[in-house]
Amino acid sequence: MTDQQEHISALKDIRNMMERSSRFISLSGLSGVGAGVAALVGAFLAHREFSRFDQRSFDRSAEYSAGLNGEADLEFNLIRIAVGVLAAALASGFLFTWLKARRSQLPLWDRTTRHMLVNLFVPLFAGGCFVLSLLFNSPALVSPACLVFYGLALINASKYTLTDIRYLGYLEVVLGIVNLVFPGLGLIFWTIGFGLLHILYGTVMYLKYERKSA
Amino acid sequence: MKNPIESLNKIFDSRIRLGVMSVLMVNERVNFNDLKQMLELTDGNLASHLNTLEQAGLISVQKGFVGKKTNTTYQATATGREAFRNHLNALEKMIKNID
Fold it and tell me: Which residues lie below 8 Å from residue A1, measured CB to CB, with a gap of 6+?
């Protein structure tokens, strides 16, 4: 009897070590919710910029002759909003995940964290450069490119963290491709992908993994 | 029928060695400090267990440098993987038999 318990506990140990050493499991669902909220605020601000730009387009010819460039202004403001959203999303991502790691007494920074981040940020960085160029050359593709690159980055990183994130990745890629068919609705697709899906995914993850242990 | 106890590998009686092998089964190559952090061990303790595993031919050791610091990495050998799998199967069988 004690022998059997010994074997069962050995198997549990093995499983635990395999999982803990290969996957970053402290990623918190609340991080996703935080990023989603940041995206919604960002989308609202971007929407305001667009309508302001549209209003001004009535007297664009006057502006042009006065040496003002409303379009460059718009692009500059959008980049500023995007940087703000990124910073807020990363901050909330870090905060909730740090809290979760502390609660479960796991190290926040180890090889699994490094692996996950490298696998997430390599495609994300390539996508970022790509999107920045699209913003000036063919803005209609900005939102689909954001969604597709982000989805691929998530699928890539899912090998090193909770596998559920893979499904979020698939959804983002599909949304990005559908967005190609509706090029004028970029902001709406972007808001669904980065705002609503994040909040939905984060809530599901929180209920699945964290509420019981909290 | 063969008694499954015979297939239990004596080397894996130690939870630490079992832990090291578990980590090396799912990670291709791991360095000393990462192993130490994951298993929450002291240098000396981990080193002696790694030594035992290496002597038995279950893991291989590569010494290298990162800058001027030594960076020793460990990898499970084919023999090691096989031995670990057999050990797992034996554990499973024993649990099922007693049920």
Answer: B98
pLDDT band at A213 (very low <50, low <70, confident <90, very high): low
Q: Name the burial class of residue B10, with classes exposed (0-12), middle (13-18) and buried (19+) by CB atoms within 10 angstroms of its CB.
A: exposed
ipTM of this complex > 0.90? Answer: no
Cα–Cα distance for residue pair B58/B36, rounded to 1 Å: 18
Shortest CB distance from A7 goes to which of B34, B37, B94?
Answer: B94
Q: Do the Cβ atoms of A20 and B38 come within 8 Å?
A: yes
Phi, psi of B65 (to 5 degrees): -125, 140
Q: Which of A25-29, A165-169, A210-214 has the lowest mean pLDDT?
A: A210-214
Q: Evaluate whether A211 touches A38 at the Cβ level (below 8 Å).
A: no
Q: How many CB atoms lie within 10 A of CB A10?
A: 20
Looking at the DSSP assignment, which residues form a beta bridge with residue B63? Answer: B72
- Tell me the C-alpha distance between B44 and B49, whole Å: 9
Alpha carbon distance A32, A203 (integer Å): 8
CA distance B14 to chain A (A): 10
Backbone angles phi, psi at B69, to 5 degrees: -85, 145
At residue A153, the pLDDT reads: 97
Q: Which residue shows structure tokens 């939102």?
A: A143
Asked if B8 contacts B91 with a C-beta cutoff of 8 angstroms, the reply is yes
Token pair of A114, please? Answer: 């490094």
Domains and CATH numbers, chain B: 10-98 (1.10.10.10)
Q: Would you call B56 an interface residue with chain A, using a CB distance cutoff of 8 Å?
A: no
A161 forms beta bridges with A24
- Average pLDDT value for chain A: 89
Find out whether A184 and A50 touch, Cβ atoms under 8 Å.
no
Per-residue pLDDT band at A214 (split at 50, 70, 90): very low
